[in-house]
Amino acid sequence: MRLATLLLAVLTFTGCTLVDRRTFAPAPEAQAKPPVTAPAAPEDKRTALVTIEFSVPAPSYEELLRAAVRAAQSRDPYVHFDVVAVVQNTADAETGVQRATGVMRSILRSGVPNDRVHLLLRSDPTLAADQVRVYVR
To answer: Which domain holds residue 127?
Structure first.
């Protein structure tokens, strides 16, 4: 009985190999792949209806924005607006969103329905000062 058990054990382990560094080494034909980089956000090629530069703490833009919104609505009563906060540094994203939200509220006070105003955020390290741009869609 012992001999049969020993023989069975020997036959069972003959196909086994020892696990070592070679077991986990990559195959020689495997090549390292270059790291995948995220594509850069496409630059907006549209001309802004209004650009509000925040080089001063509280720029006066209400009257100009209201006139621009009315002019756009006179051409198309169902016009949509993209309000884009453009910040120099992504660390300033929260401030940019707050500023863009203020501009969006001004547009809404001009009588534009909520579903026609869209809020976006972009970064551009080449800017001299943060901006909020309003585009017609």
So the answer is: 50-136
